[in-house]
Amino acid sequence: MDAETPEPTAQDTTPRDTAVEAAAPSRRAVIGWAGAGLALGAAAAGSVAAATMHEAGPAAPGIDSTVDIPFYGDHQAGIATPVQDRLHFAAFDVTTTDRAALVKMLKEWTKAAAAMTGGREVGTGATGGIPEAPPDDTGEALDLPASRLTLTIGFGPTLFEKDGVDRFGLRARRPEALVDLPKFPGDRLEPGRTGGDICVQACADDPQVAVHAIRNLARIGMGVVNVRWSQLGFGKTSSTTPEAQTPRNLMGFKDGTHNIAGTDDAALAAHVWAAAGEGPEWMTGGSYLVSRRIRMTIETWDRTALQEQEDVFGRSKGEGAPVGKQKERDTPDLSAMKKDAHVRLAHPDSNDGLMILRRGFSFTDGTDGLGRLDAGLFFLAYQRDTRKAFVPLQARLAANDALNEYIVHVGSGHFACPPGIRKPGEWWGQALFG
Q: What would the 3-class secondary structure string for 388-399 be?
């Protein structure tokens, strides 16, 4: 949980499809201002309740939350982009065996994604179509700005082969790095929260905008895909902007301080972006995503002494400073920490320089039926090659981390996220299916 995350990469500023813009004007133009969202409710503890709240989360210093994040670029937005405050992540199962139908859906998804990330309605919008037909847009984001929405797509191992069947002629195009993740010690993965043929990560500073994006894609995909599982997240737990304060997780600790900065092109090239010649050409410039739903045993943790909590992490709870240091970003003395301290085990210096780009969010999904909160961390790790990053890091943590007494991994996914869409007319998965 402590392997650290990046900051914004410069996205290509290719102009949006002017024809689409003409058909569907910006929501900001409709309401006449580019504010940070309407405050229609108070903050709620549960992630489902949080999804009904429209107040934009705080942006990192130097980030204008009213400026759209470009959809077009060499890399997909939502990876090295500054982390937004809200998440709606969905994994889909492809229910058709018709390759043409799947390709058609991906083309429609791409157009919809470009519109929504630009603050526009999908197609003819929520009210502009034929009265006798369902509208093209579900409408719950009307009057809301784009809130820095990003949409990031990934393809899971089962898209390439499922139960021994090559449904779409993609088996030979599966990257070697897109491995079936091993079962780590302590894993209690639930099938209903694990896997998926395709994933879409929607991040925004307004939860309704993120939910609207996934809902529209699910509507467009009806008959081609079904939602296998989804996760709402709030309160980002990692920062891709080094000048910003590292957010706290639900245990009250800062975690992931040494994330890769999204502006650090050298580190991104070394640790995040798939390199030419290392896998199939369609993945060059993309990244491999591992998602993990990590349940925290909140009630046990809350009855644990402060000193033990700090020993478990290897940080002070107040400042977030490493053991024996004063400030959060002071260089840690790993030898001063207990051998099973989380920071010590996860730090790059303990892992031959290994790093991942981390985007994490807290979640609270009601109770487990036994009077305990179903709460924790939805962990998202991007890397150049999962076999050389998440797999060895998690193996080390699963075997030795003191934090394991208070957490359990209950959901998991692994996805190949292709490079970005560079201009209008291109579509998600084009190089893979082409």
A: HCHHHHHHHHHH
Query: Binning pLDDT at 50, 70 and 90, where does residue 240 land?
Result: low
Q: Distance between CA 134 and CA 211 in Å, rounded?
A: 19
Whether pLDDT at 318 is above 50:
yes
The DSSP output letter for 235 is E
Check the CA dihedral 390-395-401-403 and report its sign. positive
For 67, 366, 374, the CA distances from 369, given in Å and listed in that order, are 42, 9, 9
What whole-number distance in Å separates Cα of residue 239 and Cα of residue 243? 9
pLDDT(4) > 60:
no
Q: Which residues on neighbouring strands pair with residue 229, listed in sequence order?
A: 91
- pTM reported for the whole predicted model: 0.86
Lowest mean pLDDT among 22-26, 268-272, 330-334, 381-385: 22-26
- Residue 408: helix, strand or coil by DSSP? strand
Amino acid at site 133: A
Pair of tokens at residue 270: 């070394």
Residue 66 pLDDT class (50, 70, 90 cuts):
confident
